[in-house]
Design a protein that fits this description.
The structure holds 3 protein chains of 3 kinds. Chain B contains 10 helices and no strands. By secondary structure, chain B is mainly α. Chain C is mainly alpha-helical. The chains are: A alpha/beta, B mainly alpha, C mainly alpha.
């Protein structure tokens, strides 16, 4: 465990007792460097979301250990981790501003400071116009931005995103990808993105892990070598094509396996 | 309107149903005369007490049943069949147990209203999206805070439906009880009028009860609307 | 997790059934105990204890008088329930499909549902007189509105994509109803039927209590008037048991329909 390692997963396995008994994940070995942008791709059902649950402490691994900033996770969510879920987790009874301020309710900060932080997060995510509207009046993409703003306002050191742009159209996804990169650079946080879109993983990350079909294990780790200052226009770089091709060649067989199982 | 015309023109026998205009006059007479003020106060206070207790017990019981699935498996069919049985038949039993006076009426009101609260509590808790519970853990909220900040607001629409029903059922229970066996209250006054063949008084009082019920429901309805407006589109 | 072995699922269902049966027995025993306690404490003034009640009930079940009354109740109830269900279903479908009518009707119906129908009892009595028609009127008065509301809700909540798919598949209106709409609405309709069932029964019983010389409701009131405590307790027991049994049955019937429509 070096100074640079932010998160370490060591021989993590997750099983469900059932009935029926399911070996969902692992063994997983992963070290995430501080400040890196790491993506995970894999066929559906391979345990990506379980991995995220384990990583943030929502779920304890059946065996193996998870260390965050040098301390082991014991079934509790530690301070400093922010999560954006696949499903819309905005609270329908609160306005955008109130949603974003939600995470700061438990902090002892003075009201003025909270208002400033909230305003900053809201405008950073481009929601300033809609700050007093309610989630029901917003589109799916905007609601996800609310959830991201809510995570952002807490200045987490590790940001986990589980297919956050799943419900969006391709153009919006590309733009949201740029937003995510901007967020990453501004906060300096370590980012883990789970996605099923290979191009998204290839274009945004420093490193991509490819997971096998269930039980999910890493079958490939690809360093992209992109400069820190990137955005979605990186798709025109010749390397991008071969990267995506490499990811797919790993993934194709695993996906076929999953399809065969489900059919 | 239609009723008014029918009654006036004698289509409906005036001994049976009196025209609505007369009902209104009668109501204003009797209520305005102030002779029933004590009864009204008694009945309304009993109803409110029963309602409050029903909401309290019902929510608590509903939450407990929701938490323990075994309890729920037992309770579900019972709750489903509860409203098949006319609860006011237990009123004489309550009188035997608790004596005459307010207590059996309050208990009757609670027995009528609490299951509705339980049912809507269960429904409300069911309707909290699981993702929000995950959110609570991510934000490391204590159980009490998770309940107050997330579960309650998320469940509120359905809870409110239960409150409206509970108010109606408490009202029905208390007045039915007074009707059957009591010395005071609006229900008794109606029963007295009924047995004295005093149609005017009876209808006047009934109209009054109806108005109270509609008003109370109306208030809750408006309140509910204000809460709900933000959550729905537009 | 879609490759769940069937045997594992079955064994867990069987064990759940055993637990539920056990709990039901425990609950029955507790109820009996409470009943006994109340009965002895009030010295049989309002409620007679379990054992004498059951004995009396067995005797009662052998008389033709009882069955006459039961039949009267059953007849009135079936009629009231059928009317509530069919009219409710029809109205619910109409209000659900015709957007404007539905939006006007729903608050009115919901309001009617929550106001105390007890205030209308004397009116019904005076309009319908005593006897069968009043009973049925009571039953329908209680059972119609929930059925309408549930059906209305079911139709309104139909995902529009289902209707669009039916039209793409060029289904005739009759087939669209039978193959798509009804199965999709079925859980809510079944729930509506169940609630309508309970409330129609309640309405009929209440009607009998106030306005009839026949039926279980009448028997109950009669028992109370004559201070025949075992009788009134026995009738209450019968009603409660029938209600619970019917509701449990309908809950169970509703379950496969819910699963097929793919809901919680």
């Amino acid at each position: 465990m070096t100074e640079q390692s932010h998160v370490v997963l060591n021989e993590v396995v997750r099983r469900y007792e059932g009935p029926p008994a399911v070996h969902a994940l692992g063994p997983i070995n992963l070290t995430m460097r501080r400040g890196e942008f790491f993506s995970i791709v894999g066929p559906s059902g391979c345990g990506k979301s379980t991995l995220l649950d384990v990583l943030c402490g929502l779920v304890r691994p059946t065996s193996g250990s998870v260390h965050f900033e040098g301390r082991e996770l014991r079934g509790e969510v530690p301070d400093g981790i922010g999560v954006v879920f696949q499903e819309d987790s905005s609270m329908p009874w609160l306005s955008v501003r109130q949603n974003v301020a939600f995470g700061l309710r438990t902090s002892a900060k003075p009201e003025k400071e909270i208002a400033e932080l909230v305003d900053h997060a809201v405008s950073f995510m481009g929601l300033a116009q809609f700050a007093d509207r309610f989630p029901a009046q917003l589109s799916g993409g905007m609601r996800q931005r609310v959830c991201i703003a809510r995570t952002l306002v807490l200045r987490p050191r590790l940001i986990l995103l589980d297919e956050p742009f799943g419900a969006l159209d391709q153009q919006t996804r590309l733009l949201m990808g740029d937003e995510l990169l901007r967020l990453w650079r501004e906060t300096g946080a370590t980012v883990l993105l789970i996605t099923h879109a290979l191009d998204e993983a290839a274009m945004l990350s420093d490193r991509v892990g490819v997971m096998s079909a269930r039980p999910g294990r890493f079958i490939d780790m690809v360093e992209t070598g992109w400069p820190r200052d990137r955005d979605s226009r990186i798709v025109s770089d010749p390397e991008f094509g071969s990267l995506t091709a490499r990811l797919w060649s790993c993934l194709r067989e695993e996906s076929l396996k999953t399809m065969g199982r489900a059919a | 309107m239609l009723l008014e015309i029918c009654c006036r023109t004698g289509i409906i026998d005036p001994l049976t149903v009196i025209p609505p205009s007369e009902m209104i006059v009668s109501m204003v007479d009797h209520i305005g005369s102030g002779e029933l003020n004590e009864s009204i106060f008694n009945t309304l206070s009993t109803i409110i007490l029963a309602f409050a207790l029903a909401v309290g017990f019902g929510s608590l019981a509903g939450t407990l049943v929701h938490r323990f699935s075994r309890l729920r498996d037992v309770a579900d069919p019972l709750l489903a069949s509860y409203y098949s049985v006319p609860t006011f038949i237990f009123y004489p039993l309550l009188v035997a147990l608790l004596g005459l006076g307010k207590a059996p009426l309050v208990v009757l009101g609670v027995l009528s209203a609490a299951p509705a609260v339980m049912i809507s509590t269960l429904s409300g808790l069911d309707g909290v999206p699981p993702i929000l519970m995950k959110l609570a853990r991510i934000h490391r909220l204590s159980a009490a805070r998770a309940l107050w900040w997330i579960v309650l607001p998320a469940a509120l629409p359905r809870l409110f439906t239960g409150f409206k029903l509970a108010l109606s059922y408490a009202l029905i229970g208390v007045i039915a009880g007074e009707f059957i066996l009591s010395g005071t209250g609006i229900g008794y006054a109606i029963s007295f009028a009924y047995q004295s063949f005093d149609n005017r008084a009876m209808y006047g009082l009934m109209l009054f009860v109806l108005l109270v019920a509609v008003t109370a429901n109306g208030i809750l309805y408006v309140w509910e609307g204000r809460l709900a407006r933000r959550r729905s589109v537009g | 997790m879609n490759d769940v072995p069937l045997e594992a699922g079955l064994s867990s269902r069987a064990s759940r059934r055993r637990i539920r049966a056990f709990d039901a027995v425990v609950l029955t025993l507790l109820t009996m105990a409470l009943w006994q306690a109340i009965g002895s404490w009030t010295k049989g003034v309002a409620v007679s204890p379990p054992l004498p009640t059951l004995l009396y009930l067995f005797g009662l079940l052998r008389t033709s008088m009882f069955w006459n009354h039961a039949a009267a109740t059953l007849a009135a109830f079936l009629l009231a329930f059928a009317l509530s269900a069919l009219i409710g279903l029809a109205l619910g479908l109409i209000f659900g499909l015709k957007r404007f009518a539905g939006e006007v009707a729903e608050p009115v119906l919901a309001g009617f549902y929550t106001i105390p129908k007890v205030t209308l009892y004397p009116v019904v009595l005076l309009v319908f007189g005593l006897g069968m028609s009043a009973k049925v009127a009571f039953g329908v008065m209680h059972g119609l509105v929930p059925m309408t509301l549930f059906t209305l809700g079911a139709v309104r909540n139909l995902p529009p994509v289902l209707i669009r798919t039916s039209r793409v598949l060029r289904l005739s209106p009759d087939r669209m109803m039978r193959w798509v709409l009804v199965p999709a609405c079925l859980p809510d309709i079944v729930n509506g039927l169940r609630i309508s069932f309970s409330l129609s029964l309640l309405g009929v019983l209440i009607g009998e209590m106030f306005s009839s010389q026949r039926g279980l409701g009448f028997l109950l009131v009669n028992g109370m008037a004559q201070n025949n405590v075992p009788l009134s307790t026995a009738v209450v027991t019968v009603i409660v048991v029938v209600a619970i049994a019917a509701n449990t049955l309908m809950l169970r019937i509703g379950r496969p329909a819910e699963r097929r429509a793919n809901r919680k």
